[in-house]
Amino acid sequence: MKTILIGAIALLFSMNSQAQIKNVKSEVKTTVTTIKDSKGEKQLVKTQEVKETQNIELKDAESNALNKEIKQTPVQVTAITAVTANGVTNIVDVDRSAYYNYNGQKYQVSLAETGYNMYLPNKEKAAVLRKTSNNNYIYSTKSKTSFGYFNADGNLVLESYDPATDKITSEIFEMIKE
Questions:
Q1: pLDDT in the model for residue 13
Q2: Based on CB atoms within 10 Å of each CB, which residue in 14, 35, 127, 136 is the most buried?
Q3: What sign results for the dihedral spanned by CA atoms 131, 143, 98, 45?
Q4: Quick one: average pLDDT of 89-117?
Q5: Rounded CA gap, 129 and 116, in Å?
Q6: Do residues 22 and 55 lie in contact, with contact meaning Cβ atoms separated by under 8 Å?
Q7: Three-state secondary structure along the chain?
Q8: 26/116 Cα distance (integer angstroms)
Q9: Burial environment of residue 125 by CB neighbours within 10 A (0 to 12, 13 to 18, 19 or more)
């Protein structure tokens, strides 16, 4: 009975000491911005965590050589940004804040407490974008509500239902690359 107990304990400890199969690098960058205006002083805290993960694979895994070379494998990069404003924390996988062009008009999309706000060049708020549970957005203005998403090129695509034609219309806000 004593040897079975010792054997079981040895087995449990040996499972914990297996070789590492991933290289992981994590970097956290915190930026604090203080904004003073007529309403008082506000602090925006932006914390960005970038995590790089790479699987470790051997070139000749089946050989009997003692020292083996590591094969290059792709690196998976995950970036998570948390923005805290007015005590509310908003977690963003990818920050889509940028300038966009639609019908010759330039719009600025900037991160807000609960999603994004869209502004005209004169700093007037044109619309709000609120994230849904399936990583899409609801685009809302005073006169219109649409469904939106960001395509692979980073452009904002809005899809709206037109009851007169019974069709879905698409509008593309092209990202301005500077």
A1: 66
A2: 127
A3: negative
A4: 84
A5: 5
A6: yes
A7: CHHHHHHHHHHHHHHHCCCCCEEEEEEEEEEEEEEEECCEEEEEEEEEEEEEEEECEECCCCCCCCCCCEECCCEEEEEEEEEEECCEEEEECCCCCEEEEECCEEEEEEEECCEEEEECCCCCEEEEEEECCCCCEEEECCCCEEEEEECCCCCEEEEEEECCCCEEEEEEEEECCC
A8: 27
A9: exposed
* CB contact set of 75 (below 8 Å; sequence gap of 6+): 52, 53, 54
Q: Which of the two residues, 176 and 81, has the higher pLDDT score?
A: 176
pTM for the predicted model, two decimal places: 0.54
- Residue identified by tokens 């009851």 is 163
